[in-house]
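Q: Hi! First time doing this. I have a protein sequence and I read that you can turn it into a structure. Is that right? Here it is:
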Amino acid sequence: MGLPRMKTLVNTAIGIAFAGVSGIMYLQLKQLDDIANSDYFKEAFKILRTHHGAISLLGEPIKQKGFRLSDTKNFLTSEQAQFQVNVEGPNDQGKMHLWAIPKANDDTNWSITRIELELDKHPEKRLLIKDGPKPQEASAQ
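A: Yes, that's right. Below is the predicted 3D structure, encoded as C-alpha cells:
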C-alpha cells in the first residue's frame, strides 16, 4: 500500500482545521451567551435601563450591543467579573462598565458591586450608575 496522495492529505488537513475552528467559535459563543444570560448581567441592564441619568443621556430604549471576550478589559474568574459592554440609545451610545463578585463563595450567585456608563460624546467622563467598590479595591481592604 502506497502513501496517500497530496490532495487527500490537504483535504484532510483542511477538514480538521475547519472542525477545530468551528469548535472554538462554538465554545466562545456559548460562553458569551452564558454570561449575557446570567442573573447579574441581566440585573445590571435592568439597573441601567431604570436609571434616570442613563435614560436622559442615552434615551429609550437602551439596547445592549455586546462585548468581546478577546478584549482584556472583559474577564471572568472565580473571584471577580469585569465587563465593558457596548450600549446604545437614540441619543448616544457608549459602554457600560460592570464589576461583580460572587456571593459567599457561590459561583452561581453574583453581586454587582459597581456600574458606570461611559458615553461616546464624553469619553473622558463616566456616570456612576451603581456605587460600590471595584472588586480590586474591595479585596485590598
